[in-house]
Design goal:
The chain is mainly β and 329 residues long. The protein contains three helices and 16 strands. The protein has a single domain, classed as Beta Barrel (Porin), CATH 2.40.160. It has a 14-stranded antiparallel β-barrel with strand order 1-2-3-4-5-8-9-10-11-12-13-14-15-16. A two-stranded antiparallel ribbon has the order 6-7.
Length: 329
């Protein structure tokens, strides 16, 4: 999650129920690999392909709790004239508490700029969908169920909590703007974007009350630099704020073009403020991109759970656009 410095025993409860501490969105170390999640304005904004499909999996805190926090995502997008069309589905399962969050959106983008050279691009995007949250009440224990004589939690003791519901749907609305520069004759290609997520700030609660899902503001930027025919470097950063919590991720990748095998290899470090150092690696092969990353914990939780924190894996398939060459026979 965006904020991780919580008490260990009550971590799932703080994330879900404690009124002053907002339930927050998951984070992804490979944020750059999932552009629809970062900014709706990225939807379908590519010229060299018919469509893209993306799968991503994250497992976090496996050394801390019996059932790690799991995030799975799938997305699809495609260009259509000056528009981009797509959607994504992201699922989060939070440990043994049985807390599940399912987020589905339809995503659309439009290119505002009119540049006949296709160098400067300013795009805007909108996402509409829903978030479904549920909890397995039988898997949750509270502090007043602690039996001091046995030193364990006892679910036969009344929790004193009154669940008004164990599942609900809330609307989702996201908006974004993005600028990117693409000129094959130049070595330097920058990009920058800003997005607002959960803009309607819908009411969400299992226990009643007026708790709302806070909006998340996200800014993202970076640049790719072509060093020569063999090497390319790319650096980027993402800064997001939700309620009173901030997250900064920044880092870079170096790409090696293995022309003989039509492959690219890449690797590089990233850093998430006060949380983790992240090692990224992967390869491009044909129309596929495979990415792996591993979080090395540098937060105060490292004293309890060690340095291991999270593992992430993703696959992107890009259906390349084939130029038609007429036969002369």
């Amino acid at each position: 999650m965006i904020k991780q410095r919580f008490g260990i025993l009550f971590l799932p409860l703080i994330l879900l129920f404690q009124n002053p501490v907002w339930a927050q969105d998951p984070h992804l170390s490979q944020f750059y690999a999932f552009p629809l999640w970062v900014n709706p304005a990225s939807t379908g904004m590519f010229d060299d392909a018919d469509w893209k499909a993306h799968l991503q999996h994250r497992s976090q805190w496996g050394g801390l709790i019996a059932k790690p926090f799991i995030t799975d995502a799938i997305s699809f997008d495609m260009p259509y004239r000056k528009f981009g069309l797509g959607s994504y589905l992201i699922s989060n399962r939070a440990g043994s508490a049985g807390y599940n969050v399912l987020n589905f959106v339809l995503s659309g983008a439009y290119e505002i700029t009119i540049d006949p050279n296709r160098i400067h691009h300013l795009t805007t995007g909108l996402q509409l969908g829903f978030i479904q949250k549920s909890i397995n009440q039988n898997n949750v224990t509270f502090d007043n169920q602690y039996n001091s004589s046995t030193g364990e939690f006892d679910q036969t003791i009344s929790s004193g909590e009154n669940f008004s519901k164990v599942g609900f749907f809330i609307p989702e609305a996201n908006f974004g703007l993005e600028y990117f520069y693409t000129n094959p004759a130049k070595k330097f290609s920058p990009y920058v974007g800003l997005s607002g997520l959960h803009l309607t700030q819908p009411k969400e609660t299992f226990l009643g009350g007026k708790n709302k899902l806070p909006a998340r503001i996200l800014s993202f930027g970076g640049a790719r630099y072509r060093i020569n025919s063999l090497f390319t470097a790319e650096g980027n950063l993402m800064l997001q704020r939700q309620a009173n919590n901030n997250e900064l991720q920044l880092g870079g990748l170096c790409f090696y073009n293995y022309e003989e095998k039509k492959m690219k290899f890449f690797a590089g470090p990233y850093y998430r403020n006060k949380d983790a150092i992240i090692i990224h690696t992967g390869m491009e092969y044909g129309e596929y991109v495979f990415r792996m990353s591993y979080d090395i914990n540098v937060s105060p939780l490292a004293a309890i759970m060690g340095r291991s924190s999270g593992f992430e894996f993703s696959v992107t398939y890009t259906k390349k656009r084939v130029s038609y060459v007429p036969s002369i026979m």
